[in-house]
Write a structure and sequence with these properties.
The complex is a heterodimer of chains A (455) and B (1010).
Chain A: H1 2-7, H2 19-27, H3 35-61, H4 76-100, H5 106-124, H6 126-131, H7 157-190, H8 193-202, H9 210-243, H10 255-281, H11 290-321, H12 324-335, H13 339-351, H14 359-362, H15 365-392, H16 407-430, H17 436-441, H18 445-454
Chain B: H1 9-27, E1 52-57, E2 66-72, E3 75-81, H2 94-103, E4 113-116, E5 119-122, H3 125-139, E6 143-147, H4 152-165, E7 167-171, H5 178-188, E8 195-196, E9 203-206, H6 218-229, E10 239-243, H7 249-252, E11 256-258, H8 265-277, H9 287-291, H10 295-302, H11 306-318, E12 322-325, H12 336-349, E13 357-358, H13 370-381, E14 387-390, H14 395-398, H15 405-411, E15 414-417, E16 431-432, E17 443-448, E18 451-455, H16 470-480, H17 490-501, H18 509-519, E19 522-523, E20 555-560, H19 574-578, E21 586-587, E22 592-594, H20 596-601, E23 608-613, E24 618-625, E25 633-637, E26 677-686, E27 690-691, E28 707-709, E29 728-729, E30 739-740, E31 768-773, H21 782-790, H22 798-802, E32 811-818, E33 825-826, E34 828-834, H23 844-847, E35 853-855, E36 861-863, H24 873-877, E37 884-885, H25 890-893, E38 915-916, H26 922-934, H27 949-953, E39 959-963, H28 970-975, E40 980-981, H29 985-988, E41 994-997, E42 999-1001
Parallel strand pairs in B: 6-7, 6-14, 9-10, 9-12, 10-11, 14-15, 15-16, 20-25, 22-24, 28-42, 31-41
Antiparallel strand pairs in B: 1-2, 2-3, 4-5, 4-16, 8-13, 11-33, 17-18, 18-19, 20-26, 21-27, 22-25, 23-24, 23-26, 29-30, 31-39, 32-34, 35-36, 37-38, 40-41
Chain lengths: 455, 1010
């Protein structure tokens, strides 16, 4: 494996001389936070205040504070739900699927990606609660034994959603935690005081013995295998929220693969968005190299092409079907009231990633950062287009209507980023943001040897 | 006892008891202790949970339809048409339903009040009556009583009262048929409104008579119209032509529209008459008039082609029996009587008098002229009035500023208002003696000769309001003045009057009185002479030319009574405010109608606020482009712009009266509504108009409301037949079994593969469904309000309606297929009452995560409010978009006390965050099923035993409810019609339980959707 990793361009950075350097460099991030961190945390907490204030008011007054109406019963909330579920995808993809496929470049980014996954699911999971009319009865969607023998409707995609999202959260959180254990132990060894106690507790007595490594490896590969189908299934299920309906623009067999590709695309985009500042702030340039970004960018490029293909095939099929209502729905997407959303989506997801064909762009961190922002915007609008433009222009012309998001929906949308950012910021200070143990695995063999001698 | 002994059972119970009691006590607040007392002595005629029905007479307009009022536990909860009543035949209009909101109007006067220094001080009835008596005494015979159309006994009492105290009474009807009455007098020497027998006509032409919306008897006319204009089982259909500058709702129902110039009705009618009459002999004394109107001059005056006039005349004479109706209130111009006379001449020459137009037995509707009021205003202004009493009328609002009413009224020394609720006139009154609402009062009515109906209180007066029937007040004041009128209460007075009329031949009076109260109506055979009077020579000078119009604007202004507000008396009923106007589909705010070409030429779009200015005043109002109005005409509805009429009326829309002069038409004395030209100039401001029309009346070639040509009837000619083979689709319900999309429904329920459990019991369960005949539907929207009243549907207000959140379970979609305001041509406007389709294969059902919506074994798509979490997936997946969501607590926040007394106890009041929709009046179904079961008649009520609220109200009888599985039921037979279709069923295989019968057109329909 070692030779293979080298050939594939494993980590060789002049600054990293010893294995202990890895510990030093990564654990540095767990030190005393700077002003910037506190500033960001305050910003996030302010955003969370907005989030909970808006949500609280909505619960108190009624869901009417949103701009939702007839015929658009789902709007920014469901858009944002799907957006965050999509973001949650790349984490498991990078950590589990790429692990199984032995892609070595994942080691540097998978911790960030996994953390992002867990927090994104935590964010996404709030939105079904936010959007229902009677949140106090939302638990009825869960099949729990009750004296009335009332069960949820297992035919409803929304019930599948409950299972899909909770399963995904459980597995990805477990996988995330499991992968952290050796690194938490490393952090424990370097920490003092309360932190040490905390790390001792959650490192579950990790000592790095052979048998522990053996079990760890088995468990990790087992969970990776378990998580892999989830990557595909969760977003397929989310897509069925739409595809199982009869709404023109939703009812399409392409939805599952299209959503999965879109999810990976948006997730990788978000990894880039998060990794670029972290690399800078925590001085991880040695570990998150342009090679890693190049690999991420290639993944983006691939998925953007799949997504663009899905868009085009949707338009084509709508035309080719000869079905007037379906045709109108897609014509309306491009040239109707919400044309701007569709064109934003097409430009951000179809046109902008074309630049990734150029190696210079893939190797330019600022360029990638900018492109990743476009990807995030484009993917949010993709869901907005699917949810809103399809609903506002359905079968019955008399019932067509225009939805205008309210200030509460926008507050909750913004607040959701703050909520995500809050957890992510805590993560950067409490857990090693890059996988120490796995990085050591991919150090080039001469360095490993040197390190051994030096030890 | 030590702790080591553990706690003993007895101690445990003690502790539990004490803490339990403590918790209970702290749970109660000592403030606001309410005593709940059960009935000690059961009220005799109230059984909790069982409705009691009373008959009475609607006072919503002057048509005087018979009503049945449903009361529950002593509260009126719903009004319905009385099937025994010869005028309304069991139907009721939207306004009729809204009278309940006047009964429970929270803005009603709390009690008698006197104005002192600008503020109202509550007084007792004793004080109020004493004050009135004293003022009348000192007025020394100068008393003026301003009323409006009232029952015969009340009118008699008023006459007797003013006769006793000295003075006079005038009656003012803001919406009046005075010109028609005058024209009938001139032409035939009768002093009554003619009776139209629309049902017998085969060719109907209306010169602007908007009989669906207002007039002598909208409900009766609609019924007659539906008989005439709807295709019957033999494929025969009468033709309706509308000649007028603007398509009213009545006009929208026409088969052809002749968009004549404003005020040219007489020219067209005379032109047609002259062609029919030939040498003019049939026109008798009017031969010379006809001679002046040949086809060419008529065509020129009306702005249509000569061929149109000839063709109309020929068809009018040959496609008989025919009937022509003269201009309605919206077209009351300065020559309105002449126009009516011209139309009567047309009827006479075509031989319609005595056939479809009768001069006997006509409606006894509001036809009093404005000129009476004019003289009363002069008297007030001249200081000849000491005490003025206003009852029922609201002239300060319904008359223009230039009438001088407000100034003249203000000059009167003592002004008394008997208004039930505040209005613009009572806002100026010195003494307010609130009358009872008609549902709390005694009275009678005579809607037409030979029909007498009693009005009785259906409940105790609403306790929030200390009101007293004006009849009682008049009697009491008369006694105080020392000249009692023969009765102490109005009830006594009424009985006496009827006893006096009673003929012993009819049996015992008491029995007959009770019978009348029970049936709601007494009918006497009246002798009809049966003779057809000849046309008489006019006894007054008449001008048949186009009327003079004030001002020099380029557009003619039409002001028409609103089908929702009348002349403004229904503006404070939120049901009416939120009912989409049947023509414009706009809720709450007012608008000015303008042809799209006119708007475009001025760069105006929908919602642009314009200043409409005449030489008498101006209003700022948003534009609504309407293809159904001539390019040289703009129109405003009455009923907007109230200033003192209550929380829902004030500030909504504009009062069109501000633009009008106060002119009385000669010779009838009617108020002239089409009097002026206006100019329209943009203000640069905009206002969004709340509408439920999402596509500007375009059905985008989709088969939502298809039609069939009359020629295709009976040839198996559904245009979709043979287009494609039967669709097969995979079904979710009960397994993946292909189900035929065509042909199978509606009996196909339950779907193959779902036949287990209760569904399998086809013998003992019904499949409830509806058949709606679109050829009968006039779009009047009575069903929408009936449904709202029956099912506790809240209103949401303009702001929410603008967002598209109105809660109606039913809506009337109105699609323009062919509307041409430039020349006479066929007209094709389609109405579609859209409600939950109760799909056999409902898209909403599988997507609900909690089974809040599911299918009952009876084929009804049910909604369980308590189970609903509010994901709104069902609404997204409903192709018909008939599901509405409670975005806020509309039912509690929008409905103030005592308006909530109207809630139907049989229907759940829905709270925040739940979905709702048409339940197919499941509570009525259950009630009937319980009855059938108790009577041991099986499980399925017989055909016609269940009448759903929309069906009950429909004046056109377009809606039929019943068991689709029973081949003998009316609904099942209607569904067999070749006209039957189910909306979108062929596309998405929803298998609806609501079946529509296509509209039938005279012209060929082309294209896939027509």
């Amino acid at each position: 494996m070692a030779t293979a990793t080298k050939e594939r361009g494993a980590l060789t950075h002049p600054d990293v001389q010893h294995l202990s350097d890895v510990n030093r460099d990564v654990l540095k991030a767990l030190g005393r936070p700077g002003k910037g961190w506190w500033a960001l945390l305050s910003l996030c907490m302010a955003g969370m205040g907005l989030f909970f204030a808006a949500w609280g008011w909505q619960i108190y007054r009624g869901i009417g504070v949103s701009g939702l109406m007839s015929p658009v019963g789902w709007g920014v909330y469901i858009t944002t739900f799907v957006f965050w579920v999509g973001i949650a995808h790349s984490g498991t993809l990078i950590s589990a699927i790429l692990f199984l496929f032995r892609a070595p470049w994942r080691q540097s980014v998978y911790r960030i990606a996994e953390a992002m996954t867990v927090f994104a699911v935590m964010t996404a999971g709030l939105f079904p609660l936010i959007h229902v009319g009677r949140i106090w009865h939302a638990y009825w969607l869960v099949p729990y034994p009750n004296s009335r023998f009332l069960w949820p409707n297992f035919k409803s995609p929304l019930v599948w959603d409950v299972f899909a999202v909770t399963t995904y959260f459980t597995v990805s959180a477990t996988f995330f935690f499991l992968g952290c254990i050796p690194d938490i132990a490393a952090a424990r060894d370097a920490a003092k005081g309360l932190r040490k106690k905390l790390y001792s507790l959650i490192s579950l007595g990790w000592r790095g013995t052979d048998s522990q490594w053996h079990h760890f490896g088995k468990a990790y590969i087992f969970l990776a295998a378990l998580a892999t189908p989830l990557v595909l299934s969760v977003h397929s299920v989310v897509s069925w929220d739409f595809a199982m309906s009869i709404v023109p623009g939703w009812h399409a067999t392409i939805f599952a693969p299209y959503f999965v590709a879109g999810a990976i695309y948006s997730g990788v985009g978000m990894v880039i968005t998060l990794a670029v500042p972290m690399r800078k702030i925590f001085g991880l340039e040695a570990y998150l190299t342009t090679k890693h970004f190049d690999a991420l960018a290639k993944l983006c490029l691939l998925t953007s092409m799949i997504v663009l293909y899905a868009y085009l095939s949707e338009f084509f099929i709508a035309w080719y079907s000869g079905e007037e209502i379906e045709r109108t729905a897609f014509w309306n997407r491009l040239f109707g009231t919400y044309w701007w959303a569709t064109w934003t989506m097409l430009v951000c997801n179809g046109i902008v990633p074309i630049m990734l064909w150029f190696k210079r762009v893939r190797y330019s961190i600022p360029a990638l950062f900018v492109i990743s922002i476009f990807i995030n915007i484009g993917m949010w609008f993709e869901r907005y287009v699917i949810v809103v433009t399809s609903l506002h222009h359905e079968y019955e012309p008399w019932a067509w209507g225009i939805y205008r998001p309210s200030i509460y929906e926008v507050s909750i949308l913004i607040g959701s980023f703050a909520w995500f950012g809050f957890w992510f910021l805590l993560f950067t200070r409490l857990l090693p943001p890059v996988a120490i143990a796995e990085l050591k695995e991919v150090l080039p063999p001469p360095l490993r040897k040197q390190a051994k001698e030096a030890h | 006892m030590t702790m080591t002994d553990g706690i003993k059972r007895r101690d445990f119970l003690k502790v539990l008891g004490v803490t339990g009691a403590g918790a209970t006590l702290t749970g109660c607040s000592t403030q606001g202790v309410e005593r709940l007392l059960p009935y000690v002595v059961m009220p005799e005629d109230i059984t909790p949970g069982v409705a009691t029905w009373y008959t009475t007479v609607c006072e919503g307009c002057s048509a005087q339809c018979g009503m049945w009022v449903r009361t529950r536990e002593g509260r009126a909860v719903k009004v319905e048409g009385n099937p025994n009543h010869p005028v309304s035949h069991g139907a009721l209009c939207a306004k009729g339903h809204a009278t309940l909101q006047h009964l429970y109007n929270p803005d009603r006067y709390a009690g008698p009040m006197v104005r002192e220094g600008g503020t109202l001080r509550p007084i007792t009835w004793e004080e109020g009556e004493a004050m009135l008596a004293q003022r009348i005494q000192s007025a020394a015979g100068n008393v003026l009583y301003v009323g409006q159309a009232a029952g015969p006994t009340m009118s008699g009492l008023v006459d007797q009262f003013v006769g006793t105290v000295g003075g006079r009474s005038v009656q003012y009807d803001a919406v009046s048929s005075a010109p028609l009455r005058e024209a009938a007098r001139i032409a035939f020497g009768v002093n009554a409104l003619p009776r139209y027998d629309m049902g017998s006509a085969r060719f109907l032409i209306s010169f602007g008579d908007d009989f669906v919306e207002y007039g002598a008897s909208p409900v009766a006319h609609q019924r007659g119209f539906a008989h005439m204009a709807a295709a019957d089982e033999h494929g025969s259909k009468g033709r309706f032509v509308y000649a007028g500058p603007r398509l009213s709702l009545t006009g929208q129902n026409a088969d052809e529209w002749v968009p004549i110039k404003a005020g040219s009705e007489a020219a067209l009618a005379l032109g047609m008459a002259s062609i029919i009459a030939g040498d003019g002999a049939a026109a008798g004394p009017y031969a010379s008039v006809l001679a002046a109107y040949d086809a060419r001059s008529a065509a020129e005056a009306a702005g249509v082609s000569e061929a149109t006039v000839r063709e109309l005349a020929e068809r009018f004479a040959s496609e008989g029996p025919s009937l022509a109706m003269g201009p309605g209130v919206g077209s009351h111009h300065r020559n309105a009587t002449a126009a009516h006379l011209a139309v009567l001449i047309l009827n006479a020459v075509a031989g319609n008098v005595g056939r479809t137009l009768h001069l006997e037995g006509g409606p006894n509707s509001a036809a009093r002229p404005y000129s009476e009021m004019e003289s009363a205003i002069r008297a007030m202004a001249g200081g000849q009035v000491g005490v003025v009493m206003v009852h029922g009328a609201n002239p300060a609002y319904t008359l223009p500023q230039s009438s001088g009413f407000a100034e003249a009224f203000g000059q009167v020394g003592f002004k008394v208002s008997f208004a039930t609720a505040p209005d613009e006139t009572s806002a100026m009154a010195d003494l307010i003696l609130p009358d009872r609402h008609f549902l709390e009062s005694w009275g009678d009515s005579m809607p037409k000769a030979g029909v007498m109906a009693l009005r009785q209180p259906v409940m105790q007066d609403v306790p929030h309001f200390d009101s007293k029937q004006t009849g009682d007040v008049l009697l009491s004041v008369a006694s105080r003045l020392g000249s009692p009128l023969g009765a102490v209460t109005f009830y006594e007075y009424l009985r006496n009057a009827h006893q006096a009329m009673h003929m012993p031949a009819m049996g015992d009076f008491e029995t007959q009185w009770r019978e009348a109260l029970k049936r709601g109506v007494m009918e006497h055979d009246i002798e009809m002479s049966g003779t057809v009077p000849e046309l008489r020579a006019p006894d007054t000078a008449l001008v048949f030319d186009a009327p003079a119009l004030d001002g020099d604007g380029d557009l003619t202004l039409m002001v028409y009574p609103s089908s929702r507000f009348g002349a403004g008396e229904f503006s404070n009923a939120p049901w009416m405010q939120e009912l989409p106007d049947p023509v414009s589909k706009i809720m709450w705010h007012g608008w000015v109608e303008m042809n799209p070409a006119t708007a475009e030429a001025r760069g105006l779009r929908e919602g642009d606020i314009v200043t409409v200015a005449s030489s008498h005043g101006s209003v700022d109002v948003p534009v609504w482009p309407y293809p159904g109005i001539r390019e040289d005409v703009v129109a405003l509805a009455m009923g907007g712009g109230h200033t003192d009429y209550g929380r829902w009326a004030n500030g909504n829309g504009v009062n069109a009266m501000a633009l009008l002069p106060a002119v009385a038409e000669q010779p009838s004395g009617a108020f002239v509504t089409m009097a002026t030209r206006v100019s329209v100039s943009p203000t640069g401001q905009r206002r969004r108009l709340a509408t439920n029309d999402g596509s500007n009346g375009d059905q985008h070639d989709r088969p939502i409301a298809p039609a069939m040509a009359l020629a295709d009837l009976g040839h198996g000619g559904g245009e979709h037949e043979g287009d494609h083979g039967p669709l097969k689709e995979l079904q979710g319900g009960g397994g993946f079994i292909p189900v035929d999309a065509e042909g199978g429904a509606p009996a196909a329920f339950p779907l193959a593969g779902a036949e287990y459990g209760q569904y399998a019991d086809k013998e003992n369960t019904a499949r409830w469904g509806l058949a709606i005949d679109l050829d009968k539907c006039t779009g009047c929207s009575a069903c929408v309000t009936a449904c709202q009243a029956e099912n506790n549907i809240p209103w949401v207000g303009e702001e929410q309606a603008l967002m598209g959140r109105e809660m109606h379970w039913m809506r009337i979609e109105r699609y323009y297929e062919h509307v041409d305001a430039s020349e006479a041509s066929h007209l094709d406007i389609r109405f579609l009452p859209m409600l939950c389709q109760h799909c056999g294969n409902a898209p909403c059902e599988p997507v609900c995560p909690v089974f809040a919506t599911y299918h009952t074994p009876e084929g009804v798509n049910a909604q369980i409010y308590n189970r609903c979490v509010g994901t709104r997936y069902c609404a997204n997946n409903c192709p018909y978009k008939v599901r509405v969501f409670n975005w806020y607590r509309y039912s509690s926040e929008n409905v103030p006390d005592p308006m909530n007394w109207q809630f139907n106890p049989d229907v759940t009041v829905r709270d925040n965050g739940v979905m709702e929709k048409c339940s197919l009046c499941m509570h009525r179904v259950r009630e009937a099923e319980n009855k059938v079961a108790l009577e041991g008649r099986g499980t399925i009520p017989g055909d016609g035993e269940i009448v759903v609220a929309c069906q009950q109200s429909c004046p056109a009888e377009a809606i039929v409810f019943g068991n689709l599985r029973d081949p003998n039921s009316r609904v099942a037979q209607l569904v067999q019609s070749e006209r039957t279709y189910r909306v979108l069923d062929e596309f998405i295989n929803t298998q609806p339980g609501v079946n529509y019968l296509k509209k039938v057109t005279f012209h060929a329909v082309s294209g896939g959707h027509e």
